[in-house]
Write a structure and sequence with these properties.
Strand content: under 5%
Helix content: over 70%
């Protein structure tokens, strides 16, 4: 009876600690979000710094080279966003006129087939201003993501400076324990798997962004580089990320060309998502880094609730990190299996 009481107390204590930690993270998201973004970016670029160091560059020089490249990319992205917002604002009257024409065409077509558009109040749903505000808000939200750029950059620098000495710190911390070799192996496997996951996800997101950019450029949709950048970033959000990324360019295609080409843009996004998200990425990931569909959906809701839009962006990386941590220890591997995808028994019975 005492054992059962003890186990129940431990479960309640664990749940209480979990609730307190989650509440603390949510309350401190002003600090937590830039830190998580910094860690995420640092994990992506750390292998490049280590590669430069292996090629003979001193650690500090390798770090400065990587940071210079990161700054260049940030400046280019900032310029792209700023110029796109400015150009969109200048073209806004023309876009509104075109969308008004498309709206009138749709209402006229529906009236022709006997649909009472006044009863349906379609004019409220097809107001040009609503679509224009949506696209403008999408562009402005990108600018707000770089407001903490300096804090994120400084955090990345310090993380990369510590990254070189982190393995030796782990060895020193574990050196006096009974089985330091297995502990070192667990840490190495944990870090390696996280880097492997983020490298694959970044590669597939980059491929998605490039294909989207080329597709929109061929079709003739304005700002193809911007929509490719959005597709790259939102590809980290599972399931709904690609849908959100497709909405602004599809709306813009409706304004520019009408519904036929807009449909082609939507189909193009769908094909890209099926190819990259459902075929290429699962094969590269393998089962060890995969998550069940239910876990992906729940993690999207949970991290979005805790950290807002950035939490949705990082929901899968954060959950995969937890899964990898559980998988790196024998006593918690069963939890990792529960979080993973369906186990298929290929053996013939």
């Amino acid at each position: 009876m005492n054992t059962k009481t003890k186990n129940s107390s431990q479960i309640l204590l664990t749940l209480a600690c979990f609730v307190i930690v989650v509440a603390g993270i949510s309350a401190a998201q002003v600090i937590v979000i830039p830190f998580l973004l910094s860690v995420f970016i640092a994990i992506i670029i750390a292998p490049l710094m280590f590669w430069l160091h292996k090629k003979g560059l001193p650690t500090l020089l390798a770090l400065l080279t990587v940071i210079a490249g990161l700054l260049l990319i940030a400046v280019l992205i900032g310029y792209l966003i700023g110029s796109s917002v400015q150009s969109f604002s200048n073209n806004l009257p023309a876009y509104q006129d075109k969308l008004d024409q498309q709206t009138t065409y749709v209402i006229t077509l529906l009236d022709k087939y006997g649909v009472d558009t006044k009863t349906l109040s379609l004019d409220k749903f097809l107001k040009p201003g609503v679509a224009m505000k949506f696209i403008a808000a999408s562009l402005n939200s990108l600018g707000s993501m770089i407001t903490n750029g300096f804090l994120i950059l400084m955090t990345i620098i310090f993380i990369l400076l510590e990254a070189a000495s982190f393995p030796s710190k782990i060895r020193a911390a574990r050196g006096k324990q009974k089985n330091p070799g297995s502990q070192k192996l667990e840490v190495n496997v944990f870090v390696s798997n996280i880097q492997h996951y983020i490298a694959i996800k970044t590669s597939t997101s980059l491929a998605t962004g490039i294909i989207v950019t080329v597709m929109l450029f061929i079709i003739g949709v304005d700002y193809p580089l911007l929509w490719g950048l959005i597709a790259f970033m939102l590809n980290y959000i599972p399931n709904i990320g690609s849908i959100i990324a497709a909405v602004p360019p599809v709306l813009l295609a409706v304004i520019q060309f009408g519904f036929a080409k807009a449909g082609a843009v939507a189909i193009g996004y769908l094909c890209i998502n099926i190819l990259i998200g459902n075929i290429v990425e699962p094969k590269l990931m393998g089962r060890g880094l995969g998550l069940s569909t239910l876990v992906v959906f729940l993690s999207l809701i949970f991290w979005g609730w805790v950290l807002g839009p950035v939490g949705m962006l990082l929901s899968v990386p954060l959950t995969v990190t937890v899964k990898i941590a559980l998988d790196s220890r024998e006593d918690t591997k069963w939890l990792s299996i529960l979080l993973g995808p369906e186990i298929r028994n290929d053996k013939k019975t």
